[in-house]
Each structure stands twice: as C-alpha cells, then as structure tokens.
C-alpha cells in the first residue's frame, strides 16, 4: 500500500515583489493556511516519509510552514513547477517512500488529483482545487512505478477554509 498527500501550495503574494513567477512568496493568509495544514496533518496522524516539492518559492515556503520533521527527505525539483499531470505522474513514479507528500501547482494538481482517483470526493471545492487544497489517497501497489490513473482511493480532502486555524 502506498499513500499520497497531494497538496497545492498555499495562497501566494501577487503584490509585485519579485519579477519572476517562480520567486513569488506566500502572502499572510498563505502563511497561516500552511501552518494550519501542518497542524491538520499531525492531527490526522499523516506522516509523510518523503517529500517531492516544486522548487518555486511559494511551494517551498508552504512546505517549511507545515513544520514537518527536519530529517524528512525532501526533493525540490523544477520538474513540478507548473507541471502537467503526466509530468507529475512521472515524478511520483520515482518516489521511494510509503507516504509521499507532493507539493505543486494548479492546474496540474487539480487534474492529477481527479485522474488518480477511482472516485472523487463529494467536497464542494474539490474540482476547483484552491490554494492549500490537500488530497490524501491510498493506492494498492507495492511500488510507485506501478501507479496508474484511476487507481486511487480518496481517504480525505481538505482546503484551508475547512480549518479554523487558517482564518485566525
């Protein structure tokens, strides 16, 4: 059994700052949401043993604010920056952990989440996959290389607005 935690980065700052989209940081709400998502992961006892994260500033900052264990293996890769579903699948197939947190962007995260699941959750925000959206899915496989579209079972789905701490 393998578990995927597929998270879209938290809300980013569009106020000007860096010239590059890749260098855009989180805004205040995004920083709060990231911390709240980290709390939610711990409350749900969801402990990734590997992280695959886009190299963009906003995804890396989201990851840091989750406050996961410091010794957790993290791969920052440009391959997940604005990646299409096929690219995301290829990166995931290279994973070695049993519970992998993948942090990426839309529209790739949204489409990948839909395509991975045999049945999508009835959450009203699933199809939009807003910033901070987090899917937890299980796959009946022994190794990530065997991952196929439509094979996942949704265990949970949450968006920051579902979490009281994200709005405080």
TrEMBL record:
Could you tell me which Gene3D superfamilies the record lists for this protein?
Phosphoglycerate mutase-like
> Region Disordered: which residues?
11-31
Which Pfam families does the UniProt entry name for this protein? His_Phos_1
Tell me the CDD domains matching this sequence.
HP_PGM_like (cd07067)
Looking up PANTHER family in the UniProt record yields: OS09G0287300 PROTEIN
Q: What is this protein called?
A: SixA phosphatase family protein
Which species expresses this protein natively?
Sulfitobacter aestuarii
